[in-house]
Amino acid sequence: MNHDVAVVGGGLVGLTFACALGRAGVRVALVEARAPETPARHGFDTRTSAITPVSRRILEALGAWQRIPPQRLGPFEQMHVWERPGRGELHFDAADADLPYLGHIVENRELTHALERCAAELDTVRMYRPASLERLDPAPHCAVLQLGSARLEARLVAGADGTRSRVRELAGIEADVQPYEQEALVATVRTAGPHRATAWQRFLPGGPLAFLPLPENWSSVVWSTHPEHAAALEAASDVALCQTLTDAFEARLGDVLEVAGRGRFPLVRVKARRYLAPRVALLGDAAHTIHPLAGQGVNLGLLDAAALAEIVSDLLAASRDPGLEANLRRYERWRRGHNLLTGEIMSAFNRVFSSSYPPLVLARNLGFAVTGRVTPLRRAFINYASGFAFDLPRLARAPAAAPARSQQRDRETG
Fold first, then answer.
1. Pairing of strands 276-277, 280-282
2. Could you give the CA distance from residue 185 to residue 88 in angstroms, rounded to a whole number?
3. Can you give the pLDDT at residue 404?
4. What is the residue-averaged pLDDT of the chain?
5. Ramachandran region of residue 306, left (φ > 0), alpha (ψ -120 to 50) or beta?
6. Contacting residues for 166 by C-beta, under 8 A, at least 6 apart
7. Which secondary-structure segment (H or E) carries 410?
């Protein structure tokens, strides 16, 4: 069967890209190796994403955001960052940038399910799952994909299949891979005190520890630390882990009372040396994987998806070939610089705050002090982290509903 675009990878980025194309009338094949995942109505997914206001605009434009039950969202209006007592603290408030929220913490399975429902309603999108890409053969006018016994043809193949991208491998695109020598422990915890619609992060010598707000007194924990420490945390009893988290977080939210799930994964920086090959384009983690300390990874991927969808749909509308590298150079120029800059900034933050080298300690203390006192600096940081500082694709420029903060909070908490 012929398609305009074959998207390999049915995660958040691949689904966003497929839905954006499908809504523009582009014929899409969506290839995903995993079976569908049904979201649970009790308990929380340990895999969460911090969705920025710009990413929310994209998801709203696709009709996905509206499908997420409000009681599964963790909106946050503020962010509080600190290192150690007496070494300065930073406080960011959405009001500094005239925003109702800095973002929302969303369970990945909830967002994935919402996007899958959007894709299922599009006649232009056909799902192939579970199916794995075995071969990829570019030809002058199309690419041929072999999925077991199934054979697909598409004018463009989009690799949205993650850090260990099969598309990237088959397309012969080299990538620079740099382990951070850290692993992230993820967990869902309940605390004695409320999180106050605030994202909390403390920098520790081994790496940052974040408590990200979920509904009620639940938080999503992400602790980037040395692999041996992460393994010990994962293996600890619930009682021991609760106490360790309480101590490491200085009981800012009171005692950690309950752990409802945990896991860990290695942290690695991946930079594809190019985003394009004959009949192939990369997006999301297939093109760039960064440190999670500011939760920017998925947001970069969603911007990739919106930008590439805009370019591909415009090319097809103009009867131009969307699989020619020359026609896709704009995508690589548009997104690669933003992704590289953000990745470098995250890596630098991680190095600086994990170091005990006295000049670096002095520099970061000074940075805390200056940023905390200068509102324009805080506003600039918020605009950068939210995505507003960059050239946005059309989907991200669509106006999002922004009711008054108190009215929106009432609606989302029911």
1. antiparallel
2. 26
3. 36
4. 90
5. alpha
6. 8, 132, 133, 159
7. helix 405-413
Both tokens assigned to 109? 């399975």
Phi-psi region of 309 (alpha: psi -120 to 50; beta: other; left: phi over 0): alpha
Our separate counts of H helices and E strands in the chain read 12, 19
**Whole-number Å distance between alpha carbons of 127 and 27:** 11
- 323: its two tokens: 């699989």
The predicted-structure confidence for 145-190, as pLDDT tens digits, reads as follows 999 889 999 999 999 999 999 999 999 999 999 999 999 999 999 9
Q: Please state the φ and ψ torsions of residue 348, each to the nearest 5 degrees.
A: -65, -45
Which pLDDT score, from 0 to 100, does residue 402 have? 40
Task: Round to whole Å and give the CA distance between 303 and 393.
Answer: 7
Residue 250 contacts residue 201 (beta carbons within 8 Å):
no
The DSSP H or E segment spanning 16 is helix 12-23
Pinpoint the alpha helices (H) of 264-324. 297-317
Could you give the CA distance from residue 82 to residue 252 in angstroms, rounded to a whole number? 11
Instruction: Please list the ranges in the chain whose pLDDT falls under 50.
Output: 400-414
Q: What are the backbone angles phi and psi of residue 133, rounded to the nearest 5°? A: -75, 120
Q: Six-digit token pair at 258?
A: 């309950």
Q: What is the pLDDT of residue 407?
A: 35
Query: What is the pLDDT at residue 353?
Result: 75
* pLDDT value for 357: 65
- Report long-range pairs for 136-142 (Cβ below 8 Å, ≥24 apart): 136/167, 136/170, 136/171, 136/280, 138/171, 138/277, 138/278, 138/279, 138/280, 139/279, 141/321, 142/2, 142/279, 142/323
Identify residue 99 by its one-letter amino acid code. L
Residues 36, 129 contacting (CB under 8 angstroms): yes
Residue 44 structure tokens? 């929380």
SS3 377: helix
